[in-house]
Structures are given as C-alpha cells and as structure tokens.
Amino acid sequence: MGPTISLGNDLTVPRLGFGTFQLQGDDAYRGTRTALEVGYRHIDTAQGYDNEAEVGRAIADSDVDRGEVFLTTKIKPSNAAAGDVRSSTEQSLRDLGVDQVDLILLHWPAEKYAPLQETLGAMTVLLEDGLTRAIGVSNFPSAMLEQAFELAPVVTDQVEHHPFLGVDPIEKVLEQRGGFLTAYSPLARGRVTEDATLSEIGEEHGVSAAQVTLRWMLQKPNTVAIPKSGTPERVRANFDVFGFELSDAEMQRIHGLERQQRLIDPDGGPAWD
Ligand SMILES: NC(=O)c1ccc[n+]([C@@H]2O[C@H](COP(=O)([O-])OP(=O)(O)OC[C@H]3O[C@@H](n4cnc5c(N)ncnc54)[C@H](OP(=O)(O)O)[C@@H]3O)[C@@H](O)[C@H]2O)c1
User: Fold this and answer.
1) Domains of the chain by range and CATH?
2) pLDDT tens digits for 173-203?
C-alpha cells in the first residue's frame, strides 16, 4: 500500500493511487487487476471515464478485499444539480458494483449547471447517507476551493500537478483547511521521461525519471499522486518507489523545474491561479 494520509474517522488514503483515465473496456479491467496485484490500494475513476463497470469488476475479481481498496469516482459537471448528484452517484455505485465509494469528487467546477452550494449540499447528503465516505472537488482554483471549504466538509482538490506545474496557492488553502492535494497527471502525461534533470537524479538512484517524480510527490507533504499506465511493466515500476529516498537538495532541484506548463486546460475551464 505504501504511505498513507489519515483522515481520522477510520479513513486512510494511500498516497500512491492508480489513475484510469483513457483506460476502457478490457484495458481498464486488466490495468486495474494489475495495479491491485502489484500493491496499489487506491483506484481513481470517474463517471466521465466510461470504465466504472470494468474497474468495479476488476476489484471484485481480485484477491484484495473491497475494504482494503480506497475507491474514488467523480461526478460529471452535467450531473451537478442536486437530483442528478444523487441519481448519478447511485448509478456509479451500481456500475462499480459497490455499496459505497471512499471518495466522490465534483469533477470540474459546474456553476453552469447548478450553484456550488447546491452541488456540495447534495454531496454532503451522499456522505450523511453513506453512499461515500468522503467528498471533495477537482480542478478548483484556490479561491473556489476556499468557497468549497466554507460550504461542505471537502477533503481534497484533485488538480494537475507535476514537476513542471506548481500549485502553491491550492496547497496553501489545503494546508490551512486540513485537506490534502491529489495530483493528477503526475508524470506530466509521460513528459517527465524526457527531462534531463529527472533522468540524472534517477541515474544516481538506479531508477527512472518517472520513479523519481513519484518519489518526489511522496516526499512532499500532504500529497497523493495517481499515475496512469496501460502498460503492465510501467504500472509495476510506478509503484516501485519506496526503496530509495531523495535528498533535500534533490527535492529542491526538482522543485526548480517548475515552469507553469499546464497540459489540461479545456475550453470553459476555470481561471487558474
Ligand atoms: N480530475 C481530472 O480532471 C483529471 C484529469 C486528468 C487525469 N486525472 C486522473 O489522473 C490520472 C493520471 O493522469 P494522466 O493519465 O493524465 O497522466 P499521467 O499519469 O501523468 O501519465 C500517463 C501517461 O504516461 C505514460 N506513463 C505512465 N507511466 C510511465 C512510465 N513509468 N514511463 C513512461 N511513461 C509512463 C502512460 O503511458 P502508458 O499508458 O502507455 O504506459 C500515459 O501515456 C488519470 O488516469 C485520472 O485518473 C484526473
């Protein structure tokens, strides 16, 4: 499982999770099975990934008990109205084949579909009714995240974060409010492998640039990372990051790579910090 973040109330979040975006059908099933076999205990899916059924089946078919897996899904922005929050979550649970998820996130700010207060209110009811064990948001810039914390007991903001994209204002809010950061696209969609500094640090430790990046995430405070791979060897390698440690100087060198390179910025997305 590796290191975890404890949320109190018996809820423990493994800091290295498996992302499933763009894995569909058999690829989603096999990827999730492989991830569980190599030790991941945190799986990230979404209504919008069209793979909840395969992810759920992979968990059910694996040798790992459901109770040992931290399972996250996300509500599509178009399901942000209160009634749709409820009905789409019930559909997600049916598709996943579970009674409850561990965490459910609002996938993107969705004021176009419903006021934030309405969406987070309905998500709080999901929590109270036991459809999920925690709630959170995704792709929220810092001011909107502050608002979310005012409205509901959110625990995380899942945002793009990797060595080339810092998220300091969001990290600051999460630290002040007692939430954790979930870093998506932590490998900058594979671009970290082309970086000379990360490769050089990797050579020092006998590991790859991707492994250095994930280790850096784990040594940062309060951060969860959810790399995706559809390649079994990479799924395995990305979880093999607990046997070495980066020095403070190496952590700083990686921090120095930051250049606000955002890879995911769809039309209609939020105004970022
Ligand atoms: N909340 C959101 O809006 C949001 C947005 C994007 C992503 N996410 C979540 O975050 C997860 C991860 O993000 P991501 O999939 O965008 O990007 P990522 O994990 O940074 O990178 C995935 C890409 O890197 C490649 N890769 C993986 N491991 C590698 C390794 N060890 N060496 C070289 N290349 C490697 C993969 O190729 P192969 O598959 O061919 O191995 C894939 O092309 C998603 O799956 C999803 O769960 C959430």
Assistant:
1) 4-255 (3.20.20.100)
2) 999 999 999 999 999 999 999 999 999 999 9
